[in-house]
Design a protein that fits this description.
single chain, 391 residues, alpha+beta, Elongation Factor Tu (Ef-tu), domain 3, seven-stranded antiparallel sheet, five-stranded parallel sheet, 30% helix, binds dihydroflavine-adenine dinucleotide, flavoprotein, FAD, RsdA/BaiN/AoA(So)_Rossmann
């Protein structure tokens, strides 16, 4: 191929595919490059193979970023309904699972195929199995060394994501390039990631495999979803969500009784004084969890033998059970990376670096991180679209 194009997009993931297809459809000559052997590898494994491709409740307040307003412009101009329209034009069947999360009925492969077709229709040249190794800026043009050969263009899009799940080809390449062009990096850290516990948390460690609907809290942030106890610590949607906010050496609170009305235990005592506390708890919680919590509270025996004061204190503890994770399972297990290329140096309208004309950053590489549930793909589509329309 001719080594000159209108723009080079590095990374054929969610954001890069959308960006290349959008600019290509506007008549731009696009080169889309990925070092993996096929595009969209994270899309393929997402949502348990069904791709949770958007969330109908998308709004900027469901994203973490050094600038909470940054995502508004792109998200407002390319909405979940816009992506859904594309999905429907391709006849891909979908369903809403829970909390506004939209999934394919069939397979995530349908989403990748759709985006690859959009790129093909738009005349995008795609090169997989080609790593970008170096980027230079000469005479107003970007020169990318790709697979040992130089390619030039007046615009370069960094869509190589963040370092989460290196075994899927994730790298910190975008950060290295961004630094070279004077953009700053917000410390990248694993997000939507299981939390680990120390040897002292015997209560939780004995519950491996148990799952329960809880409300989890860190400072003022709360999520009401399922928590899963694992042999290493805590996972499940509630814990993954709070992990993105959690800071080391701070406690997390769990409400094990999110549906119980105040003084629930006292009322149960009045109604059924001969019922053991653990059986009472097991009416709302999995039996193994009810057993472990009762043991930890040190309150064996029937409700009738426990004073109202003791029951009220137990209820308060169960509604705000504090624990301090020792850490997370790291980038190897993190669904996304929080932090990344700072939004300070980027235009929220075009995703272009304000001081480096022609350099764009989109998707997970940017310091914008969504909640669990389709928000991260919606950011990838919206930021990719914004850049694709501006190139
Ligand atoms: P993405 O990581 O998708 O793409 C970057 C591309 O750049 C990759 O293809 C990589 O190979 C390539 N690359 C890296 N370095 C390179 C280099 N030097 N040269 C060339 N190419 C290079 N989100 C969601 O909304 N719903 C969901 O259901 C899920 N599920 C999910 C499951 C799992 C297991 C993970 C790990 C993640 C999710 N996510 C998710 C998150 C979602 O996958 C993520 O937010 C997007 O894929 C980010 O899209 P990007 O295009 O920015 O990066």
């Amino acid at each position: 191929m001719n080594a000159e194009s209108d723009a080079i997009v590095l990374g054929a993931g969610a954001a890069g595919l959308m960006c290349a297809a959008t600019a290509g459809a506007r008549g731009k000559k696009m080169l889309l490059v990925d070092h993996a052997d096929e595009p969209g590898k994270k899309i393929l494994i997402s949502g348990g193979g069904r791709c949770n491709f958007t969330n109908i409740h998308t709004a900027a307040d469901r994203y973490l970023s050094g600038n909470p307003h940054f995502a508004k412009s792109a998200l407002g101009r390319y909405t979940p309904q816009d992506f859904l329209g594309l999905v429907e034009r391709y006849g891909i069947a979908w369903h809403e699972k829970t909390l506004g999360q939209l999934f394919c009925d069939g397979s995530a492969r349908q989403i990748v195929d759709m985006l690859v077709q959009e790129c093909a229709k738009a005349g995008v040249t795609m090169m997989t199995d080609h790593a970008a190794t170096a980027i230079e800026h000469r005479d107003g043009r970007f020169v990318a060394t790709i697979g040992g050969r130089e390619y030039t263009a007046p615009a370069l899009v960094l869509a190589t994501g963040g370092p989460s799940i290196p075994k899927l080809g994730a790298t910190g390449f975008a950060y290295d390039v961004a630094r070279r062009f004077g953009l700053s990096i917000v410390h990248p850290r694993p997000a939507l990631v299981p939390l680990t516990l120390g040897p002292d948390d015997t209560l939780f460690r004995s519950l491996s495999g148990v799952s329960a609907e809880v409300e989890v809290r860190w400072e003022k942030v709360r999520f009401r979803e399922a928590a899963l106890f694992t042999h290493r610590g805590l996972s499940g949607p509630a814990m993954l969500q709070i992990s993105s906010y959690w800071q080391h050496r701070t406690p997390i609170g769990v409400n094990f009784l999110p549906d119980a009305a105040p003084d629930w235990l006292i009322r149960r005592k009045q109604e059924q004084p001969r019922t053991a506390l653990k059986r009472t708890l097991a009416s709302l919680l999995p039996a193994r969890l009810a057993d472990a919590l009762t043991e930890r509270l040190g309150l064996e025996g029937d409700l009738g033998n426990l004073s109202d004061k003791v029951l009220r204190a137990a209820e308060a503890r169960l509604a705000d059970w504090s624990f301090a994770p020792t850490g997370t399972e790291g980038f190897a297990k993190a669904e996304v990376t929080a932090g990344g290329i700072s939004t300070d140096g980027l235009s929220s309208r075009t995703m272009m670096a304000t001081r480096v004309p022609g350099l764009y950053v989109i998707g997970e590489a940017v310091d914008v991180t969504g909640w669990l549930g389709g928000y991260n793909f919606q950011w990838a589509w919206a930021s990719g679209k914004a850049a694709g329309e501006a190139i």
